[in-house]
Known about the structure:
Layout: H1 3-13, H2 25-34, H3 47-60, H4 67-78, H5 82-87, H6 89-95, H7 100-113, H8 119-133, H9 137-149, H10 155-168, H11 179-190
Helix pairs in contact: 1-10, 2-3, 2-4, 3-10, 4-10, 7-8, 7-9, 7-11
Amino acid sequence: MTGDEENLASHALAASPPAVERISPDDVARRLREHGWTGLAAEQAPAEFQAWLARAAQLLGPQVSGPEELSSLLELVFHYDAQEILDSTDAQIVLGRAGARSVIRELGREVLAGSAIDSDRLKEIFDRVRQRTGYGGRELFHPLRLALAGRAGGGEMDRVILLLDLGAQLPFAARVKGTRERMLEFCTRLD
């Protein structure tokens, strides 16, 4: 893994809150309501929803400069269609690189064999897949992010991934597909 990719992955997975919080749980709740993903305001939400909103603000806030970017990242949580993803030009580029399918195969093994993905587990998965495949940098991270978040992108995709399993347990108006369900759907459509 290159130094830049390692720093990006470490930064993206950090559990501590950002020094300056530009996005609040209320901002996240507002975006969810605007897109029909929930009908609740942050203060009306049960405790588990409030915790998810706070986590989303903490993880996504430092990655965005405004409401449109926040909506774009939140959309990755609430909309996942493996066939759409695989039909995209970006996916074809990622999957055309050496080792991409090996990385995805190992990712599938890790996701399906383990528990819900949190920050520590995601780091473990990155490390195990890297060790088993020998790939690092974009050859490792882009297929992982594509399969789970729906885009190859940078560290902001890791933050989206960290919201999935907790979100899948909550009764949002739009159902969140957890990492296991996404992995199964992606692999089913891949071949």
